[in-house]
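Here is the promised in-class demo. Please do not try to memorize the tokens; focus on the logic of going from shape to residues.
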């Protein structure tokens, strides 16, 4: 039986670390390209928080009823069919974690190279692509920590998450105290409602939903959580409430302090904010600190993602190689393969390409899981449910409406990325049926 090593603190830490990080420190610059109202942007982040809370309320029921590692792979396999679960696991393996690790690593490296003049210190280093080089280095470091030992990985995770929260609260306080009010409206005026009704608003929800992704992180290693029927729902609630408040306040002080014209199209939003308050030199120091805050996000995804791949390997014989664990019970092979995929994304994609690519498929399978709570109650009403979704069935229906809104607009305004996500899903279906036939012939 799998040893349950992670307590509530580590579990909440992973949820918060998965959520807070790359998106909130990078996506605002892309959002203001199409949205000029401060009120509309705050509403954008509030909708993301509401959707995440609705999803967390539903996932809490499923996670408590099925306290096993694997996340959507495990849930959809039991609720619908093993083939549907495999598709979710396939997307998690191919896109869901490897791509966000790459995006977070690119953001880490962008902040790092913006804050430190490496070429000035080491002239020879200018011959290398610095952003991708440092991104790959941080992927290797976090992989080594999590591939060696669970305790070392948990300690690494807790330290960086606690450090991240302290710094973010400090930035919020500094923004309220020292931030200069820019020419931006936070009132619900005509421009605000025009922005909210625009296609740019819904497309921006891709960045917001990516920023909030991770609220369900505890589901991926539920089999390793102590007292799962209590700690899994708690981790969802605590993490989602906390992060929603943090996001709204952080974006408010960013908008309050830095002119939209300077934010537009920029990745290093935190650096611009710090430089505006304390000047370029202190801004560079804060940019350096923020770069290390992103290590927590990278670490949490390196921890959670391979548990899905390992769970698939345990269930499907044609992928059993991925289930291999070391003497400490760590899915080393899955961790290494996921990290290699992340390196491939770093070398072949830009930050915004990675974000738009993963958005459609992740929202699709999350929505299927949330709708699954209704299906699960109908199909298996006698299963013990230590926690039942608050506001059921309104809660999952509202979540479904928000996600359908995002998915439909994604198909209309981001067809290439959306269709690429569907193509990856179709490829997974082909792999599943070929693997299943191979397994039957070998039996």
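The designed amino acids, position by position:
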């Amino acid at each position: 039986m799998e040893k349950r090593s992670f307590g509530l603190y580590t579990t909440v830490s992973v949820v918060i670390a998965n959520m807070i990080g790359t998106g909130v420190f990078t996506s605002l610059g892309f959002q203001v390209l199409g949205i000029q109202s401060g009120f509309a942007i705050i509403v954008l982040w509030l909708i993301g928080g509401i959707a995440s809370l609705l999803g967390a309320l539903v996932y809490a029921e499923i996670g408590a009823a099925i306290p096993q590692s694997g996340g959507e792979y495990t849930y959809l396999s039991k609720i619908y069919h093993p083939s549907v679960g495999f598709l979710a696991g396939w997307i998690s393996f191919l896109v869901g974690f490897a791509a966000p690790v790459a995006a977070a690593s690119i953001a880490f490296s962008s902040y790092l190279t913006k804050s430190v003049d490496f070429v000035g210190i080491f002239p020879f280093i200018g011959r290398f692509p610095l952003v991708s080089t440092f991104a790959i280095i941080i992927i290797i470091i976090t992989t080594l920590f999590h591939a060696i030992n669970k305790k070392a990985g948990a300690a690494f995770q807790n330290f960086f998450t606690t450090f991240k929260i302290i710094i973010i609260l400090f930035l919020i306080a500094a923004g309220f105290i020292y931030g200069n009010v820019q020419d931006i409206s936070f009132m619900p005026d005509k421009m605000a409602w025009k922005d909210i009704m625009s296609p740019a608003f819904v497309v921006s929800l891709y960045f917001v939903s990516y920023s909030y992704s991770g609220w369900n992180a505890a589901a991926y290693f539920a089999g390793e959580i102590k007292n799962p029927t209590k700690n899994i729902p708690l981790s969802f609630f605590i993490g989602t409430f906390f992060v929603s408040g943090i996001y709204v306040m952080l974006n408010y002080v960013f908008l309050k302090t830095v002119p939209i014209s300077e934010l537009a199209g920029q990745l290093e939003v935190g650096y611009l904010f710090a430089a505006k308050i304390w000047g370029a030199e202190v801004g560079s120091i804060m940019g350096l600190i923020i770069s290390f805050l992103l290590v927590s996000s990278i670490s949490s995804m390196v921890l959670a993602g391979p548990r899905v791949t390992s769970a698939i390997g345990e269930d499907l014989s044609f992928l059993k190689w991925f289930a291999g664990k070391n003497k400490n019970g760590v899915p080393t092979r899955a961790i290494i393969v996921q990290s290699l995929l992340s390196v491939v994304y770093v070398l072949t994609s830009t930050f915004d390409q990675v974000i738009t690519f993963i958005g459609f498929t992740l929202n699709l399978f999350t929505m299927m899981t949330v709708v699954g709570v209704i299906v699960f109650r109908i199909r298996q009403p006698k299963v013990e449910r230590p926690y039942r979704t608050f506001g059921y069935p309104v809660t999952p229906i509202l979540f479904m409406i928000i996600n359908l809104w995002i998915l439909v607009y994604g198909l209309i305004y981001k067809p290439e990325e959306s269709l690429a996500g569907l193509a990856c899903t179709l490829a997974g279906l082909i792999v599943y049926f070929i693997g299943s036939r191979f397994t039957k012939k070998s039996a």
